[in-house]
Specification:
By secondary structure, chain A is α+β, with helices and mostly antiparallel strands. By secondary structure, chain B is mainly beta. Chain B has a single domain, classed as Pnp Oxidase, Chain A (Roll). Helix content of chain B is about 5%, strand content about 40%. Chain B has 2 helices and 10 strands, in the order βαβββαββββββ. In chain B, strand 7 and strand 8 form a beta hairpin. The chains are: A alpha+beta, B mainly beta.
């Protein structure tokens, strides 16, 4: 009776090349980084709206922007902190501007 | 027999710690995130997160911390046995040189709103600042360069703009200025100084 063949020795794992050290970026953002940042901010804004910590508002014609308390609401859907919805609405009413809350 | 010689050896001082240079001030809605540590000195990192730059000033920024104290005295001793902070104010002041509606509003309490109407047929483009005495809180950050050449950031999470604003309209004597007085209204423990001391190791 022959003995079962010994399992083939597995080859030693190839030495892994050391990952190149990532240099911290400095200076202004590149176009790609800016796009990535905008995407992350959009994702964060959606998460905040879903969590009830932010709301989406738009400004109605004939206005294109409404600025209050450091927040700018545009004709495009704009994410604003939830605690600013009431003061924004009141300020808009005082100024004769139509603001619509979309969520 | 004479004792050991009397030596006078004053400590060394560090001239590199003597700092000067302008401070850069940003304001934002309270709760706005600060840039990452890596990007504290990068202006676009602040503006992309929603911070607004106040622009040029007449004579830079001034940060004033002013505690008023109460002495606790006893009859048996002429000096107080304790000195307790009764009230404390922290103010950031400057004179805004850039006359924009945003800066006018900032100096006048930050309670107003600006409605922008684009140009259209028969309608010139315009921006209207509607004032209000319901002053709005904001966050403020003052950035300066430290002795390492990196950013040093004073962050005050909540301030209110409440100061006398007097603007002179002169033919040639001076620019129109908007004095800005920001008073801290948050707990003192929420105010931080962040000093970048070395670049990341990887």
């Amino acid at each position: 009776m022959t003995e079962p063949a010994a399992p083939a020795a597995t080859p030693p794992p190839a030495p892994q090349a050391e990952a190149p050290a990532v240099k911290p970026a400095t200076g202004p953002l590149s176009d790609a980084e800016r796009e990535q940042l905008l995407a992350l901010q959009a994702r964060q804004a959606t998460a905040l709206v879903d969590a009830g910590e932010a709301a989406v508002m738009t400004v109605g014609e004939p206005h294109s922007e409404f600025i209050y308390g450091g927040v700018t609401v545009t004709a495009d859907p704009t994410t604003v902190p939830a605690h600013l919805v009431a003061p924004l609405t009141a300020a808009a009413a005082e100024a004769g501007v139509t603001l619509t809350q979309e969520s | 027999m004479a004792g050991p010689p009397l030596v006078y050896t004053p400590p060394n001082y560090t001239t590199q710690n003597v700092l000067y240079g302008v401070g850069i001030m940003f304001t934002a809605v309270p709760g706005t995130a600060l840039p990452s540590d890596q990007n504290l000195g990068v202006a676009t990192s602040w503006t992309s997160l929603g911070w607004g730059y106040i622009g040029a000033t007449e004579a830079g920024l001034t940060v004033t911390f002013n505690p008023s104290t109460q002495d606790i005295n006893i009859e048996e001793q002429p000096t107080p046995v304790a000195v307790i902070v009764n009230t404390a104010t922290l103010q950031v002041t400057c004179s805004l040189s850039e006359e924009t509606l945003t800066n006018v509003n900032l100096a006048w309490g930050n309670g107003g709103s600006i409605a922008v109407t684009p140009a259209g047929a028969g309608q010139p483009g315009k921006s209207v600042l509607t004032l209000s005495t319901n002053f709005a809180a904001m966050a403020v950050a003052v950035i300066g360069k430290n002795q390492n050449g990196f950013a040093r950031v004073l962050s005050i999470p909540q301030v209110m703009s409440a100061g006398q604003v007097q603007t002179a309209y002169r033919r040639a004597a001076q620019q129109r200025l908007y004095p800005l007085t920001l008073n801290a209204t948050c707990p003192f423990a929420q105010i931080t100084w962040t000093d970048l001391t070395a670049i990341a190791t990887s």
